Amino acid sequence: MRRLLLTPGPTPLPPSVLKRLGAPILHHRTREFKDLFAGLQAGLKSVFRTRRDVLVMAASGTGAMESAVCNLLSANDRVVVHVTGVFGERFVKIVRAYGLDPVVLEEAWGDPADPGRLRETLRRERGVRAVFFQHVDTSTAVVNDVRALADVVRKESDALTVVDAVSSLGGERLETDGWALDVVVSASQKGLMCPPGLAYACVGDRAWAVSSVCRSPRFYFDWRAMRKGLPESQTPFTPAISIVTAQCEALRLMSKHGLPRIWAKTASLAEHTRAGLRKMGLELFSKAPAHVLTAACLPEGVDGKALIRDVRAKTGISMAGGQGRLEGRIVRIAHMGHINRRDVDAGLKALKAYLHKA
Amino acid sequence: MRRLLLTPGPTPLPPSVLKRLGAPILHHRTREFKDLFAGLQAGLKSVFRTRRDVLVMAASGTGAMESAVCNLLSANDRVVVHVTGVFGERFVKIVRAYGLDPVVLEEAWGDPADPGRLRETLRRERGVRAVFFQHVDTSTAVVNDVRALADVVRKESDALTVVDAVSSLGGERLETDGWALDVVVSASQKGLMCPPGLAYACVGDRAWAVSSVCRSPRFYFDWRAMRKGLPESQTPFTPAISIVTAQCEALRLMSKHGLPRIWAKTASLAEHTRAGLRKMGLELFSKAPAHVLTAACLPEGVDGKALIRDVRAKTGISMAGGQGRLEGRIVRIAHMGHINRRDVDAGLKALKAYLHKA
């Protein structure tokens, strides 16, 4: 049976990316790899919309999220986490693991982060060192207004802004330099059309200054070591070579299409998906629906876990269910990266057939 | 030009492993992936020679090394690092990053770790919590007598034994359970014939007991989270799916050959390589030469960095030079994993031709 992924990570890989993945491996201390790594830098700068270097880790996106905690904060520092879903909760867990007691500003799930509430919080809390939030929280399919939130942080505090763009990068407009974002983290397996295994952090000058005095223990995720090797296109530890190769090819494809065109295509696919779901009588879950994926509420009596499993078994199409407290209650369809309209239509059709029967 | 890797990581990938790498990606929350992950567990248990679970991380080997520090030790704990090369030094750096002041027991480079010296050290130092050493330190091509060292640790102290088997696993005999090793860490890209990107930790009961009271901050590398998902074949964060798939295939190949036969083949290749180097008039660098790779001293006046670069440019064959203080002074030839006698002979021939000219 064919296999079609409409899941928000991993996403389907373009044929030329698969071909690079399956090519004989090269050694990472060679001119060939250095050229490749330099190309990776150029491509990543272009999707992050930045002139800064982009740090590259062999890890999942969570590794890059943790790197933003352990390079910027020391135990007992004051931070705010603006939570709009499971991945906001993950930031809360990470900062707690490092001995911090975060101010947790949680929205009702499905609602975006409210810049007004963040403003009030920052006016009330003194000495906040960093504010964490998601661009898109994949669990709720909510897109946050990164620009407005970052403006609030800058106006109301000296805190650093840390943005999780793991599922949004390459699909939703994000301007790292233009919006003066201190730290943006992302990963390879969503909009960037690669297998999971590479994580990225784009770090601005204010964050670099803080990292040099940060006292949290770190080694593998130490940004300073990663930065040291960049002029020579080296990573401090063995890089995930095959995925670097694949990522270069995926970035080449993206640059051929042009980022604004990819944003527009993703937005249009999102519009199409929402319309299709509404036509089926389903209500969208998110009050601020993302472009990279769409979540819909399931009718009473429909078991979301069974739906995902049965649709996959019957059609080979993988959609995502709910995570955490949303388990079984929603269905999520990704339309980022290599996913096209025909794929989404196949997913909508399979969903409709299942719901009709159920 | 063909490309032949005789480097100690990454090592060449078998064709069937490459094929799996380049196959369309699957989703990790599916029955298909669970079955795959269960197979990965079974295969890893077989190469680690253990009945324990093997923890799987999306990271380089250094990530697994760090995991053994941050899950077992708290700031100011007493530890011993028995150093036989660059990777021993890496353990020193990691434990220092976590606020520990290790007792560093360093051998002259090229010498193996002396169990007698370790015994003296443990008799002198009180309250040592853990002893770290390499099975093979890739930088010096030295193999340490893991069994004897672990026996000393057990007899002289209550310390945990932490063994870095990143470059030895699958190539040199290692008995995790049989030798009662508390922690063994490894990675995918050497004897296990996969791309870099997966790291492993095999953790025994005594180490689990310590990890539950360890106060070092950790999240991505927290063993407890990794263990929680294992009964359901889940990793806490998105796994490096493509490499998991490839690793399953490589482990299948290894199980088809049988581990003792692979050990014997690796030992015989090592013997062959040493003989070839001696015949060229080169002296072996290591006093206890490993089976997985061989290091030879370069004659006075030969620039090791130029040698590696020129041989690669001329023949497509990648060998490794020296690391750290050995930079430019030695050449290292790997003969682990998918590397066969013909490959080694091609390397020896290229080396001979270069030295003849130089």
Summarize this structure as a short list of keywords or feature phrases.
globular, two-stranded parallel ribbon, seven-stranded mixed sheet, homodimer, 12 helices, Aspartate Aminotransferase, domain 1, 2 domains, 358 residues, Aspartate Aminotransferase, domain 2, alpha/beta
Task: Give the helices and strands, then pairings.
2 copies of one chain form a homodimer.
Chain A: E1 4-5, H1 15-21, H2 31-48, E2 54-58, H3 61-70, E3 78-83, H4 86-97, E4 103-106, H5 115-124, E5 128-134, E6 136-137, E7 142-143, H6 146-156, E8 160-164, E9 183-187, E10 198-203, H7 205-211, H8 223-229, H9 241-257, H10 259-279, E11 293-297, H11 304-315, E12 317-318, E13 330-334, H12 341-357
Parallel strand pairs in A: 1-12, 3-4, 3-5, 5-8, 8-9
Antiparallel strand pairs in A: 2-10, 6-7, 9-10, 11-13
Helix pairs in contact in A: 1-9, 2-9, 3-4, 5-6, 10-12, 11-12
Structural overview:
The structure is a homodimer of 358-residue chains. The model of chain A has no long low-confidence stretch (mean pLDDT 97). Chain A contains 12 helices and 13 strands. In chain A, strands 2-10-9-8-5-3-4 form a 7-stranded mixed β-sheet, with helices on both faces. Chain A has a two-stranded parallel ribbon with strand order 1-12. Chain A has a two-stranded antiparallel ribbon with strand order 6-7. In chain A, strand 6 (136-137) and strand 7 form a beta hairpin. The longest helix of chain A is centred in the last third of the chain and has 21 residues, at 259-279. The first copy, chain A, has 2 domains: 4-11 and 258-357, Aspartate Aminotransferase, domain 1, CATH 3.90.1150.10; 15-255, Type I PLP-dependent aspartate aminotransferase-like (Major domain) (Aspartate Aminotransferase, domain 2, 3-Layer(aba) Sandwich). The first copy, chain A, has 358 residues and is an alpha/beta fold. In chain A, helix 10 (259-279) runs parallel beside helix 12 (341-357). At the A-B interface, helix 1, helix 3, helix 4 and helix 9 of A face helix 1, helix 3, helix 4 and helix 9 of B.
